[in-house]
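Dear colleague,

Following up on yesterday's call, I've attached the two folding results inline so they're easy to grep. Please treat them as preliminary; we haven't cross-checked anything against experimental data yet. The first protein's sequence and structure tokens come first.
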Amino acid sequence: MRFLSEPTQREPAPAEPARAEPVPAEVAERAIEWLVDLQAEHVPEALHEEWQRWRAAHPDHERAWQRIEAVNRTLSPAAAPVQRAIAHATLMAPESASRRQVIAALAVVLFGGGAAWLAKDEGRWSERLADHRTRTGERRTVLLADGTRIMLNTASAINIHFSANERRVQLIAGEILVTTAPDSRRFLVETMHGEAEALGTRYTVRVHGASSDVAVFEGAVRLAPLRALQPLPVLQAGQQARFTIDAAGAAAPVQADAAAWVDGLIVARGMALADFLVQLNRYSNWRLSCADDVATLRVSGSYPLADIGKVLAAVAAMLSLRLDQVSRFWGGQSAHLRRP
């Protein structure tokens, strides 16, 4: 996969000025369309000529293409998600909704912030350009080509890579529940910390901070931390473990409600209020907090994730706390629990 460069007979385009006027959104997306269209192995000369005519038709068109080349010159080899998104778009029907979504996302990435933004917020644009992703509070099931089912929890993102020898799911952010389908190929979930290989199974993988968590409900899963030197541990059904880049922790029993989120629930068993709010906040864009003197109060029960406000009201009533809610004029909401 490559970004296009200028034809060899022309002088290289100068870098885009640091304070250049923004490129109109429709022009940016059309430039991305050209970038995608010109990635084919054999591009007709007529298409090259039409591209050149488009560039010459308006100064904004030329500025848009120069922007693409300016970003291309400063992108690091780590820009694989951008390249993969372009490659995927080349395989989609020209007028398909999926192709339009990918092109719109690429326009935001390449024109919204440029190379500096890409380098600073790699995780964010990797998620934006993922094969499948969910927003905060959203859950969604994806059926893979082999029959495997993957349910994405809130704010999750995955890429899918199938080959002749293996089936690989890259978990970029969040949490997934995998129910594998029978197949002769290996099935692996890859995180930044290593791999979790299914041995005929149903299991969850969650990536957060400096570690990844795996919980096995059926079958078994072999963990392979990225830099581990010890023999690879295998988790059996009913076990869970956390692993980092260097090692896997000891196996522990899986809690019965570890995958309650699949049914739209959050379950607490004597959880500290502050910790409960952290978990609840995964499913909401609200700003949730509590006073220091109530942070260790214990929360128990099953709560539906569909209405965060009702959950907070129920917890406040159970703990005899006051719930202060504030709605900001720009649409943001915050909630704070404290003593009356």
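Below is the second protein, in the same order (sequence, then structure):
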Amino acid sequence: MSTIMIDYDLNKPGQNYDSLIKEIKRLGGNVWCHPLKSSWVIKTTLSAAQVRDDLTQYVDNGDAMLVMNITGDNWASSGLQKDLNDWLQSV
């Protein structure tokens, strides 16, 4: 299993995030968190490219998305709630 971070900017005013968020949660199963406004972390068997490809249908052409594999301890945070930071360290 990989720990995947998903960041996005939906640039078109008035966009509906509901479908995108529902799909992110589905991809993560029961293992996901939402640490920042436009960031999600999921645990999945999919690669970062597979997650990106799946989520592309939920964003418009002018939007931006970054999907990264952050498995292991090669990441750092600042200002997150302790329970969130602890969760990230545990996955």
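For the second protein, one point worth flagging: The chain has a mean pLDDT of 88.

Best wishes,
A.L.
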